[in-house]
Amino acid sequence: MRAGRLVAALVLVVACAAGGLLATAAGASTSSSSSLPPSSRKDLVAIFEKKVKPLGLRVTRAALVNPAQVRDPNGTHLAIYVEPTGAYTPEDYLHGTVDVSKVFLPYVFTRWKGLKSFDVCQEPHPEVDNRPVPAPETQVYATRAGAKLVDWKTVDVATMIQTSQEQAAATPTNGDVPFSLFVAKHLQITPAYQTLAGTAATTTPASTPAAPTVRDYG
Asked: For the segment 199-210, what is each residue's pLDDT rounded down to a tens digit?
């Protein structure tokens, strides 16, 4: 009888220890995964679609990617693409560089501590360019540190342009510019851009970011 009780007690101790290890492992896994956003388009759309809808936009492509720009659940760069669902003017795209960015920044870095960089592109209306992967009209890119270079409560188009130009000038060739704003050339020549950009519009073209690489992500 004593031997039977001893065996039962040992089994209980081992089971409890194993359960504790499993719980710890599960907790670690949850903690690790929660430090990064999901990688799938479906999951990202579920998070952000309702946030961009009031701006007259929808999410078209979205991915968490690695340095090779491949969708990866362990990647540290989040890429989001949005397109208009209705009429959208050049002024809307320009104002969108601020309005759309404020949907995501600094939110994504606050929510996901493992995220290192982020970009959001505004794509043309599908009636203008219905290709699955069109060239973007605008792109805002920021690293975790770069997102802190502007005050997201008061930022405007001119401030974003100026900050982008300053960071481009201060970053070594082939370095990672911490904050950049790309605006398509056909938008830069509009009166709206000249008005919203103010004195920032007169900065030398050398400080203008190159067009972002168009990616599908699969």
From this structure: 776 654 444 556
